[in-house]
Every structure is written in structure tokens, then in C-alpha cells.
Amino acid sequence: MIEIRNLSKQYGNKLALDQVNLQLDRGVYGLLGPNGSGKTTLLRCLAGILRPTCGTTKSPETIGYLPQRFSMYRELTLFEAMAYFASLKKIPRQRQKDEIMRLLSLVHLDDRVKSKVRSLSGGMIRRMGIAQALIGDPPLLLVDEPTAGLDPEERLSFKNLIMNINSEGCVLISTHIVEDVEALCKRIIILNEGRVVIVSSADELKQHAKGVIYSVLAAKQDALRPPFEVLRRERIDGQEMLRVLSLQEQPAESVEPTIEDGYIMHIRGYAAKHT
Ligand SMILES: Nc1ncnc2c1ncn2[C@@H]1O[C@H](COP(=O)(O)OP(=O)(O)O)[C@@H](O)[C@H]1O
Ligand SMILES: [Mg+2]
């Protein structure tokens, strides 16, 4: 459905995308990577906003796109703003109203059609952003960091919303928040320094950290054999514990990896050394 071949993008002497090859079919994909890894650049190339330095992308003609920083004229009403986007997408005038109301009810904003954009909360504007991206049922939906800056409750409702879209097409969601992609995406694409490091399912990603994650009492850290990396400190049953990644066996309790552990394996290059 979408084919990306040898895609590179250079800004001055910064190589933001380095020979990206991807093939996407229908379903929800997560584009996961640290800040600066090239997620926005990749989405902008797919959306046709940015011209790649080299390589090709083959994608559908109509694309829905929610940019990382979505904003809208504050003095328009929600309905007017949506009608503006519908016109840009060449939806015939007589069909606009139905389409707008269908999408606003999908994102639970149908009771706010007459509200001015300036009266909406950040979470509501993000939902409006999804609604405008869905106008005309695009076979490819690109969503850039949809949950950044939202509070936990808004993030949850946003995730439910994406799950309910039930698109027949392909949805590509970029995020640097690992837990956002876990429940949402059938495939996870990890991008690091402009390169695709791996494409896998959430379960596979967890498995990549199998046998290398340990939990140890903080007070007993000295017993660990270097090299190891402390991933985080956590309080479990009132005790201070360290979650540790190590490719060699440690005198500590081996624990089940999370998808976040699998992500770290790839981002820090451990996966290549681990067999
Ligand atoms: N317009 C630009 N000019 C120069 N460098 C840029 C520009 N846009 C992005 N970059 C750089 O390209 C790299 C990738 O950026 P970006 O695609 O925004 O990453 P992400 O969305 O994953 O945070 C970063 O190092 C960023 O600083
Ligand atoms: Mg970005």
C-alpha cells in the first residue's frame, strides 16, 4: 500500500533520514523513536510537504495528516474550521455538513460545533485535529506525536479514539512515548538517528529483551558484575529496587521484560550484541 525506498533527507549537513526502506499495509503502525530521530521528517516526506533528498515514496493520493503542532484560526467556530478543511480537501459543499457532523461525533465534539476554536482545551483541539485529518476517509492517515502535552486522562481518551477509527487503510502514528504504541499498533517501527532499526510487533519487541533484565535491591548493587546499565530506580513493596539491563548473567532476579526494555535494547545498540 505504501512503499518507501531508500529515502534520505538532508538539512544542510544534517542527515535526518538515512536510506529508509519501509513497506506498510493496512492497520495501525507506531513510529517510535527518541527526539530528533527523524519521525516528523519521515511523516512530512510522506505527506508531500517535504521533498526528500533522494529516494522514493509510493503512497495514496489522499492523505490525512495531523502535524505535530496543529493549530487553527482561533476566531472560527469548530464547524467553520472543519468546513475550511473540507473545502481544502475538495469535499463538495452539499456533502460537507454530514461529513463534518459524522467526524465531530466520532471525536466527541458534536456538542461544540458552534464553539469558537479559542474556547477549546488542548485535548479538544487535538481531537479536532484528528477529525480534520479523517475528512474524506483517507486511505493513509499520518499522526505526529498525538499525545505529547496531553494530561493522562486526555491521553487515554485519545488512544481510545484512535482504536475506534477502525480505518480500512493505513494509520501511522509517531511518538516518543513507548506505552502509547503498545496497545494501539500491530507493528512498531523503531527509528534511531534517521535509520529504521527494526520493525516488529509489541510482543516480539518484549522478547528481544528476554533474559537480560534484572531486578536487584539498590543496597545490593555492588554485587552486580559490570558491565550493566541501570534502567531505573523503582519502589517495590516499600523497597528501593534497581531495574538493570545486562547481557551477561547477574546474581540477581531475572524479570519479565517490557516493551520499553525491548526499545532500549534497540536504541542503545544492545540488540546487535545479544544473541
Ligand atoms: N528544518 C530543519 N532544518 C535543519 N535541521 C532540521 C530541520 N528539521 C529537523 N531538523 C533536524 O533533523 C533531525 C530530525 O528531526 P525531526 O524529524 O524533527 O525528528 P523527531 O520528529 O523524531 O523529533 C533533528 O536532528 C533535527 O534537529
Ligand atoms: Mg517530531
Q: Can you tell me about this structure?
A:
The structure is a single chain. The protein is an alpha/beta fold and about 280 residues long. The protein is about 30% helix and about 30% strand. The protein has three domains: about 130 residues, Rossmann fold (3-Layer(aba) Sandwich), CATH 3.40.50; about 70 residues, no CATH class; about 70 residues, no CATH class. The strands form three sheets. It has a six-stranded mixed sheet, sandwiched between helices. It binds adenosine-5'-diphosphate and magnesium ion.
Per-chain topology:
Layout: E1 2-11, E2 14-24, E3 27-32, H1 39-47, E4 54-58, E5 63-66, H2 78-88, H3 93-106, H4 122-133, E6 140-144, H5 152-165, E7 170-175, H6 178-182, E8 187-192, E9 195-200, H7 202-207, E10 213-217, E11 229-236, E12 239-245, E13 253-254, H8 259-267, H9 270-273
Parallel strand pairs: 3-7, 3-8, 5-6, 6-7
Antiparallel strand pairs: 1-2, 1-4, 8-9, 10-12, 10-13, 11-12
Bound molecules: adenosine-5'-diphosphate and magnesium ion.
Adenosine-5'-diphosphate binds next to β2 and α1.
